Amino acid sequence: MTIDESTCAARDAADPLRSLRDNFVLNPDEVYLDGNSLGVLPRATAARMQDVIAQEWGDGLIRSWNTAGWIDLPQRVGNKIARLVGAADGELIVADSTSVNLYKALSAACALAKQAGRGGKRIVSERSNFPTDLYIAESLAREQGFTLDLIEPDDILGTLDDSVAVLLLTHVNYRTGRMHDMAGITAAAHRAGALTIWDLAHSAGAVPVDLNGADADFAIGCGYKYLNGGPGAPAFVWVHRRHAEAATQPLSGWMGHAAPFAFTTGYAPAPGINRFLCGTPPLLSLSALECGVDSVLAAEPLGGMPALREKSLALTQLFIELVESRCAGHNLELASPREGDQRGSQVCFSLPDGAYAIVQALIARGVIGDFRAPDILRFGFTPLYTSYVDVWRAVEQLRQVLEGGEWREARFAQRAAVT
Ligand SMILES: *Cc1c(COP(=O)(O)O)cnc(C)c1O
Predict the structure, then answer these.
(1) Rounded to two decimals, what is the model's pTM?
(2) What is the Cα–Cα distance from 138 to 124, expressed in whole angstroms?
(3) Residue 269 DSSP SS3
(4) Structural contact between residues 31 and 11, judged by C-beta atoms closer than 8 angstroms
(5) Secondary structure (DSSP) of 330-354
(6) What radius of gyration, in Å, describes the C-alpha atoms of the chain?
(7) Does residue 199 line the site of ligand 1, with CB under 6 A?
(8) Which residue has its alpha carbon closest to ligand 1 atom 13?
(9) Which atom of ligand 1 is nearest to the CA of 224?
(10) Choosing from 104, 372, 378, 393, which is the catalytic residue?
(11) Cα 153 from Cα 169, distance rounded (Å)
(12) Is the previous residue joined to 260 through a cis bond, with omega within 30 degrees of 0?
């Protein structure tokens, strides 16, 4: 059966998750396929922020740390995110940025590896990992006397031996959308005596994750992508409970102290995950993040992450099929896995010439994806608010841009600071 806009509209009408779209502020003239970079604003966020600012801050002032529950917000929002990633209450906390949380988790993992006395001094990661992860690992390896070895994804299992202290992987690759088998790789790492750190930046709220089921050691993740927490939203960190009392992290700020308001001179880490806090939590951002996480949890009565995953796969599959059939002959090459079980919630195509300008021309037509150097057109699909008609419209605009050649205009070649 050939697919057209009306068959896509019929799929939207039959979509059990269709009501969730109303929870977001969307421009009806645009198709937003960049929720993997900055999630859409939930409708609830502005009113909640207004309340936090006017009532809790404006009226409540300092009292709100107790009366409005500010002091517990990193744990409260952490427990909500835990439900999305297979963690238990009290195991996951919201703090800092993903980069800073990686620094803390990787330091803790290196210290545990040293304590275990196994002698392995290699931190292994993927060459194609998100650069901030590699930059943090590079300086930390130097500081701790470890080496950082970067390998290709297909070489991960083969490289695991007793020289590896920590395996640091991003579950869903930011450029290709390729997803790792978390349980299988974690088990192989453990057989080799290595600890695992999983970066869930492109997984939390996008694909089902089961940290405890996979027996992972550490995880970190991002609040402003699929969790819809807003620009620069705080990030999260999780530690398996078998490590929670042994793991120490170097940013020993007062909020991670066992008794911050005792104001004692010496540092004593708080029990469990709370020691991964450092300074005072950013309350305004945390409040917005809570609305974002709630916008994902709103899917729970409709089937939760498995239902979101099912729709995500249907959207990405449809996008691949439509691009390959309707935009054939323009040298677009699928850069994401064709097999659904290896694909996150995004689809990328590579194009040797013009990828950046084509993305700009699409944005000018109201189809918002992004470009990742050197040659990737990247499109993220958020089943909470992306519709099948959105997919149709995006491919139709892409087809017109490619056929009309408008992307060759000089204005689309100008590089902005953020791509
Ligand atoms: C988006 C992303 C980050 C972002 O890190 P910040 O510290 O929040 O800027 C880190 N790692 C990966 C894999 C990402 O995709």
Answers:
(1) 0.98
(2) 11
(3) strand
(4) no
(5) S--EE-S-SSGGGB-SEEEEE-TTT
(6) 22
(7) yes
(8) 130
(9) 8
(10) 378
(11) 9
(12) no
Looking from the CA of residue 99, the nearest atom of ligand 1 is: 7
Half-sphere exposure of 111 (CA within 13 A, CB side): 14
Token digits for 117?
Answer: 């006395």
pLDDT in tens, the chain (419 residues): 689 999 999 999 999 999 999 999 999 999 999 999 999 999 999 999 999 999 999 999 999 999 999 999 999 999 999 999 999 999 999 999 999 999 999 999 999 999 998 889 999 999 999 999 999 999 999 999 999 999 999 999 999 999 999 999 999 999 999 999 999 999 999 999 999 999 999 999 999 999 999 999 999 999 999 999 999 999 999 999 999 999 999 999 999 999 999 999 999 999 999 999 999 999 999 999 999 999 999 999 999 999 999 999 999 999 999 999 999 999 999 999 999 999 999 999 999 989 999 999 999 999 999 999 999 999 999 999 999 999 999 999 999 999 999 999 999 998 888 88
Does the C-beta of 226 come closer than 6 Å to ligand 1? no
Distances (CA, A) of 272 to 61, 84, 178, 237, 264: 30, 20, 32, 12, 20
- Concerning whether 311 is annotated as a catalytic residue, the answer is no
Annotation says 224 is catalytic: yes
Cα of 232 vs centre of ligand 1, distance in Å, is 10
User: What does 31-60 look like in DSSP terms, one character per residue?
Assistant: EE--TTTSPPPBHHHHHHHHHIIIIIIIIT
For 386, which DSSP code? -
The answer to whether 362 and 354 have CB atoms below 8 angstroms apart is no
Residue whose structure tokens are 């275990």 = 116
Residue 393: how many CA atoms within 13 Å on its side-chain side?
18
Residue 277: CB atoms within 10 A of its CB come to: 25
Q: Write out the two tokens for 174.
A: 């930011």
| pLDDT score at 132 | 98
Q: Please report the atom of ligand 1 found closest to the CA of residue 37.
A: 1
Q: How far apart (Å, rounded) are the C-alpha atoms in residues 339 and 73?
A: 39
Q: Is 378 a catalytic residue?
A: yes
> Could you confirm whether 130 is annotated as catalytic?
yes
Is 132's C-beta closer than 6 angstroms to any atom of ligand 1? yes
Ligand 1 neighbourhood includes 133 CB (under 6 angstroms): yes
Residue among 24, 32, 130, 381 flagged as catalytic: 130
10 Å CB burial of residue 166 (0-12, 13-18, 19+) is buried
Within 8 A by CB and 6+ apart from 409, the residues are 357, 361
